[in-house]
Amino acid sequence: MQDIGIYIKKLKTLIIGEAHNPLDSNIFHKLSLIALFAWVGLGSDAMSSASYGPEEAYLALGGHIYLAIFVAIGIIVTIFVISTSYSQIVELFPTGGGGYLVASKLLSPSLGMISGCALLIDYVLTIAISIASGVDAVLSFLPISWQTIKFGFAFFVILILILLNLRGIKESVIFLIPIFTLFVVAHVILIVYAFYFHFANVPTVMNNTIADVHNVTYGVGFVGLLSIVLHSYSMGAGTYTGIEAVSNAVPVLREPRVQTAKRTMRLMAISLAFMAAGLMIAYVLYNVAHEPGKTLNATLFENVTKPWGTFGTYFVIATLISEAGLLFVAAQTGFIDGPRVLANMALDRWVPTKFATLSDRFVTQNGILIMGVSALIMVSLTEGSVERLVVLYSIAVFITFILSQVGMVRHWWKSKTKIKDWKKKLIINGV
């Protein structure tokens, strides 16, 4: 029996690495993330949502594609409002101010528990939708018959990420930095190219947009027009997920943590607004339509690179691979922040205390495992459908958004005699 125990220990070391020394004073510094790494490990959740959020919003418009201009403006405004409001949360909670802690301390423990549960669902779905969308991106440049391997592919990727996270946060982030860089560079090139070569068509697009507004208003009235735009906006609500992840992960950021968190959120907001709104408008410029077995981005990129010949084909493949890679990185947010929320809830006795225990690799092993297994179950139940997952995802995220912002508004109102610029802060969280 002793020999079996030794072999099991060796196997564990082989898979997730040697145990860290808890007496090493530099170990937590080595595991912490600077703003750039945090942008990759946490910001990837927000950035990668551009792979499915704008697509779902655009498809929800049906034949009224020119209304996408209004949705794109709404996306930009929402991203910066959420980013600014969560910067205030980070300032107020410098040791970590996720939705669970904010609602618990500023509203009530019961509402905090609801927010925590919504967050846990959110992070499980972060893993599930990121992997499912990433697999869709890869299969977009393969024959449609390959769709049969979708679930098996997703299952395999989730297992790999579970193992990477059991080894430790920083190792799994650094491993994927080249993919993140390729994604950003490739998408910026394609979006800028699309805008540059269709700049002369802007007046036509504007005229078509005005005509679309008049036609819809004439047919179903202003309320009908507003309903179409808001439905599209809500279907693309997955675009806004990920910005709040920084407030949950403040403890793993490099000192000074508050400034690192705010820099990370600025990077996320600027890059996400450019990517999401840019793709929405590019869909309109190229009049992109859904093709079976392909993501909308794949169809757009093929149209953009048609004049490039063979090089264009390879460039699209590389871009879609980087898109899939970034989506796989995005699943990191679920593995990093999900166990952290579980640990906080465990300390308050909402869940078993074992979820607050660190392994010998200084990771919350139980939390990582439950996040990964739950994501596998969600992918299985929804058959990896991004269209189904994104609705559940948006609901869970916005429950936490609402509770966090209500808590902050209440805090500023109660502190109005102590804080000079309380009105400005209240308005930011109130919006």
Write a structural description.
This protein starts with a helix and ends with a helix. With 431 residues, it is mainly alpha-helical. It is globular and about 55 Å long. Helix 5 packs parallel to helix 14 and helix 7 packs antiparallel against helix 8. It has one domain: Amino acid/polyamine transporter I (Up-down Bundle), CATH 1.20.1740.10. It is built from 19 helices and no strands. 74% of the residues lie in helices and 0% in strands.
Characteristic key phrases:
mainly alpha, Amino acid/polyamine transporter I, 74% helix, 0% strand
Number of domains: 1
CATH class assignment: Mainly Alpha
Question: Could you say what the CATH architecture is?
Answer: Up-down Bundle
Q: Describe the main β-sheet briefly.
A: none
CATH topology: Amino acid/polyamine transporter I
Strand residue percentage: under 5%
Low-confidence stretches: 20-25, 27-31
Overall average pLDDT: 83
Per the principal axes of the C-alpha atoms, what is the gross shape? Answer: globular
The N- to C-terminal Cα distance equals 62 Å
Indicate the structural class: mainly alpha
Please tell me how large the radius of gyration is.
22 Å
Helix content: over 70%
What is the element string, with H for helices and E for strands? HHHHHHHHHHHHHHHHHHH
What is the tally of beta strands? 0
